[in-house]
């Protein structure tokens, strides 16, 4: 069973994604921001991390940077819906430049989620 850590400050979205992943047979951990995710990673070792980019108290870019500095070899999927002043394309391109395994624009379909997870977990 694959364990996936979801990092997203939007409670409704996080709950929906948790349900989708559990229905697909995954074990799910969750954190509301990058700081909470880093604390959780001290005791947990997920197979994959799915992180939003824009969050208060430790955004996705800070989380990706910290994981790169720690040389943690956990595949990361960056997600973003953008904001008024920053486009989702900019957010996802920034994450891709930092070496994430995949990017996923919000909103997304169950099929695109399955494909991104398959690609990211391939190695």
UniProtKB/TrEMBL annotation:
Domain of life: Bacteria
Matching SUPFAM superfamilies: CheY-like
Keyword Protein biosynthesis appears in the UniProt entry: no
GO biological process, one term: phosphorelay signal transduction system
Pfam families per UniProt: Response_reg
SMART domains, per database record: REC (SM00448)
Response regulatory domain ranges (all copies): 3-121
Keywords from the named record: Phosphoprotein
UniProt cross-references to InterPro entries, sorted A to Z: Bact_response_regulator (IPR050595), CheY-like_superfamily (IPR011006), Sig_transdc_resp-reg_receiver (IPR001789)
UniProt key word Nucleotide-binding: no
Modified residues (4-aspartylphosphate): 52
Protein name: Response regulator
Annotated organism of origin: Lamprobacter modestohalophilus
């Amino acid at each position: 069973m694959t364990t996936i850590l979801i990092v997203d400050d939007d409670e409704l979205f996080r709950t929906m994604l948790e349900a989708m992943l559990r229905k697909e047979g995954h074990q799910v951990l969750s954190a509301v921001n990058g700081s909470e995710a880093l604390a959780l990673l001290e005791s947990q070792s997920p197979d994959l991390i799915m992180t939003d980019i824009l969050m208060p108290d430790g955004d996705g870019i800070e989380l990706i940077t910290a994981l790169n500095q720690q040389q943690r070899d956990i595949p990361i999927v960056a997600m973003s819906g953008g904001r008024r002043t920053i486009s989702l394309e900019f957010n996802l391109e920034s994450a891709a430049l930092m070496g994430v395994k995949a990017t996923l624009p919000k909103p997304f379909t169950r099929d695109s989620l399955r494909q991104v997870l398959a690609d990211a977990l391939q190695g």
